[in-house]
Task: inverse folding
């Protein structure tokens, strides 16, 4: 086919019916999050959470970094994909939203795999590099404030091992990246990240038009 199919609401429903495997714990967390102000917009889609878990399995990830926790839906998906002795470090500016997800992590039996670090993410990542060293993660998921996306990318490239996978969410950012009249800091941050990745010889990339845009970034060296 020469072009991409238009994904209608009817087709989205079909895709979910034939491919989505969201259990009760995930469904309940997603529903509670959706009832929060802006919750439905800020949390990842259920099918994206399923994709993250699949990618963690494909990369045989034992150590995962998540930049941006919110209520921890993606955190739960990733933690479940880890082996019992695996580790997921997740960063958020506040413990208010992760506190909603924590009981679900406990119910799923993965709370002990999750290391929540609260504070400015750039400061957290800088401290991690200084105290724990580089190349300590197999997979990184970036889904935090968009203005800092270029900085998060550089930290991620330092913290992930050679051959590791970085997954960046919202790289189409509601379509705003394609509108030159939109120049707010978040949109500009996503545009800068996309432009950097396009010419960065340290990585290979694939941008997916799924959800709000997901870019897969594999560190080559």
Result:
């Amino acid at each position: 086919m020469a072009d991409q199919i238009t994904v209608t609401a009817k087709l989205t429903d079909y895709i979910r019916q034939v491919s989505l495997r969201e259990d009760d714990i995930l469904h309940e967390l997603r529903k509670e999050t959706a009832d929060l102000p802006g919750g439905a917009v800020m949390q990842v889609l259920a099918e994206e959470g399923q994709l993250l878990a699949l990618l963690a399995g494909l990369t045989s990830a034992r150590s995962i970094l998540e930049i941006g926790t919110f209520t921890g839906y993606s955190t739960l998906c990733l933690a479940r994909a880890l082996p019992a002795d695996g580790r997921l470090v997740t960063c958020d500016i506040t413990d208010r939203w992760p506190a909603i997800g924590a009981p679900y992590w406990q119910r799923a039996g993965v709370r002990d795999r999750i290391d929540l670090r609260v504070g400015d993410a750039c400061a957290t990542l800088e401290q991690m590099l200084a105290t724990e060293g580089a190349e300590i993660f197999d997979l990184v998921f970036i889904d935090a404030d968009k203005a800092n996306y270029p900085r998060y990318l550089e930290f991620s490239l330092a913290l992930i091992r050679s051959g590791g996978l970085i997954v960046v969410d919202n790289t189409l950012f509601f379509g705003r990246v394609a509108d030159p009249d939109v120049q707010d800091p978040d949109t500009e941050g996503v545009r800068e990240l996309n432009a950097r990745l396009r010419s960065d010889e340290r990585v290979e990339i694939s941008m997916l038009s799924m959800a709000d845009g997901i870019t897969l970034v594999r560190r080559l060296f």
